[in-house]
Design goal:
The protein is of the alpha+beta class. Helices cover about 30% and strands about 25% of the residues. The longest helix has 16 residues, at about 1-15.
């Protein structure tokens, strides 16, 4: 209880000071591919959920490899942490950097995690991660070597029972900017990376968000375009 109180107090102080790479600590535990335990100043242990990504769960295919990859990057090392929020489990959600390397970006580039679009809102960071994800999808790097990798949030929704495979990779068009796909049946539009981006009826394209709204389309509640 005391450790949790100290971590919450630390988050509040960091929020009001607005520091970047706000505090440092040593990684003393790796729970899975996107969650670590950090020993901070005052021997306070803080459970940290990496911001903006979602790695395979331990019982999923590739879950152990994702954990091993994160372990090799951060375990036993001093990391810089930039707190972003606190999740419903009391974990600090943060950007993590080790030797000036963005750990979240490194995991995406290695094909060890998805960009978690419903929570990844920081621009241009999240858009850049999405482009990296698209590249490794196409190249079949890491978990993308599987013919039907399943997103962790889909796996959790099914209670750990494998369900529908992840939708095909989005057609991200970096050269001309983001292209939104509108579903002509539901009149909902999606951004690249959303599992509904290439749905059967997603045949209406919009280069700007406002164009989709003007045409009578509503933003997807999952990817929040």
């Amino acid at each position: 209880m005391a450790n949790r109180f100290l971590s919450i107090l630390l988050l509040i102080l960091l929020f009001f000071t607005g520091l970047s790479h706000a505090f440092m600590g040593k990684v003393v535990g790796v729970a899975d591919g996107d969650t670590i335990t950090v020993l901070a100043e005052g021997n306070t242990t803080i459970k940290v959920r990496l911001y903006g990504i979602d790695a395979p769960e331990s019982r999923q295919d590739f879950g152990n490899k994702a954990k091993q990859n994160l372990t090799s990057l951060v375990f036993g090392k001093i990391v810089d942490m930039e707190p972003m929020a606190q999740d419903r489990y009391g974990r600090t959600v943060a950007h993590i950097f080790v030797d000036d390397q963005d750990v979240c970006e490194a995991l995406v580039r290695a094909g060890m995690a998805w960009v978690y679009l419903i929570y990844c809102r920081e621009k241009p960071t999240c858009d850049n991660w999405l482009m990296f994800e698209q590249k490794v999808r196409v190249a079949g790097v890491g978990l993308w070597a599987s013919p039907s990798p399943q997103a962790p949030w889909e796996w959790r929704r099914g209670g750990g029972v494998k369900g529908d495979a992840l939708a095909p990779a989005p057609k991200y068009q970096a050269a001309s900017g983001t292209v939104y796909h509108g579903n002509i049946s539901s009149h909902v539009f999606h951004r690249p990376g959303c599992r509904h981006y290439d749905c059967k009826n997603c045949v209406e394209n919009f280069e700007k968000r406002k164009d989709a709204i003007r045409a009578g389309y509503k933003p997807c509640q999952i990817c929040s375009p």
